[in-house]
Inverse folding.
């Protein structure tokens, strides 16, 4: 648990980075700090590992004031990931990751073994371990950054815009990866971003800050979207928040309908006369066959019981609505966690659930 108690920071030139921040990041959760540029997100984060010393108030980590004791000891117990990974350019990937275990007293050999383990954990091929950071893509560098922060096995991770330097597709992959890791590891994570979508996707709880590090609202994502406390927060979370919030509403009451299906064995399936789902040999939907026999893309599918925590809209009204609206047939295709055909999603059924007031 990380607790900020009335933390203020006035820099030497008189700039107020933080006025008085009070909030608690719970153990085992991802707490996201989000807000416009200059609102004090990075400053807040850095008061935790004492890269910034507050001018008033205090930060408590697991009940202890971080100002007491040696900052170097403190930092060894805290993983830190920054934008553009901050890798040491003159150390190979494996030695970048082994840095903290070495500082913790492991032999170089043990530290490298530990590093190899964590690199695998974040989805990096062992072949990359001997490269220099400059020989990696931006996304790979960020993964190494995460691996390095995990290698010390610290219970607390500070992540400062760790994914903002990569393109949107890789960014979503990295977010998925973090959620997957977190489901296993249960770290206490403080995550800074200026991207509200990222905040909502990753945060168990999200703190929206305004300039001066003043807390505008601190709440779980669904509550933030449903009940923004004021115009600032409402403006920040955006106008499409009703739609976003569907991503948190389980579609348990949605019943699936039967769709015509056909095996996609020969490619040429004739003219069905109505929209028909083509299934591959493993019962997975491959495409739609139009009434005139032409093939069409499936559109997005609705995952009914995806067991992957990272599957964004698994089993939610948003997933159901996306599937129904993106399908050329006017009805969406539902699959199970393994991608096998389960049934169809009727747009009217989804809209009826929305009308019944499930989401606000
Ligand atoms: N060392 C410093 N000296 C003076 N002012 C500083 C210093 N570091 C940060 N500030 C100021 O403190 C305020 C908060 O900065 P901070 O970096 O915490 O904001 P941020 O929310 O992380 O912004 P961004 O999203 O742009 O990174 C800003 O006005 C910034 O200019």
């Amino acid at each position: 648990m990380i607790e900020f108690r009335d933390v203020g920071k006035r820099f030497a030139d008189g700039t107020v980075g933080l006025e008085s921040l009070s909030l608690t990041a719970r153990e085992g959760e991802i707490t996201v700090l989000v807000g416009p540029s200059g609102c004090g997100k990075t400053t807040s984060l850095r008061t935790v590992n004492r890269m910034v010393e507050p001018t008033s108030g205090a930060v408590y980590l697991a009940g202890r004031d971080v100002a007491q004791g040696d900052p170097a000891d403190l930092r060894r117990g805290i993983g830190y990931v920054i934008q553009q990974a901050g890798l040491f350019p003159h150390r190979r990937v494996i030695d970048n990751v082994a840095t903290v275990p070495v500082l913790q007293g492991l032999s170089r050999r043990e530290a490298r073994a530990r590093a190899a383990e964590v690199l695998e954990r974040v989805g990096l091929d062992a072949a990359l371990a001997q490269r220099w950071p400059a020989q990696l893509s931006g996304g790979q560098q960020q993964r190494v950054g995460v691996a390095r922060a995990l290698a010390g096995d610290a219970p607390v991770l500070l992540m400062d815009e760790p994914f903002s330097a990569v393109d949107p597709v890789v960014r979503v992959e990295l977010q998925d990866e973090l959620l997957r890791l977190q489901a296993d590891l249960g770290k206490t994570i403080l995550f800074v971003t200026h991207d509200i979508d990222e905040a909502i996707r990753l945060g168990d709880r999200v703190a929206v800050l305004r300039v001066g590090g003043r807390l505008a609202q601190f709440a779980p994502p669904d509550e933030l979207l449903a009940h923004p406390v004021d115009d600032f927060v409402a403006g920040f979370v955006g106008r499409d928040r009703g739609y976003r919030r569907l991503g948190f509403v389980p579609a348990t009451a949605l019943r699936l309908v039967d769709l015509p299906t056909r095996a996609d064995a020969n490619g040429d399936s004739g003219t069905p006369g109505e929209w028909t789902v083509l299934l591959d040999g493993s019962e997975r939907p491959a495409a739609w066959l139009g009434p005139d026999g032409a093939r069409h893309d499936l559109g997005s599918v609705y995952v009914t019981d995806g067991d992957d925590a990272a599957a964004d809209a698994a089993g939610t009204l948003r997933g159901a609505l996306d599937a129904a609206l993106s399908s050329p047939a006017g009805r969406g295709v539902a699959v199970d966690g393994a991608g096998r055909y389960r049934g169809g999603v009727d747009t009217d059924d989804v809209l009826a659930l929305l009308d019944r007031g499930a989401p606000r």
User: Anything to note?
Assistant: The two ends are 32 Å apart (CA to CA). Residues 306-313 have pLDDT under 50 and may be disordered. The chain has two domains: 2-246, 261-355.
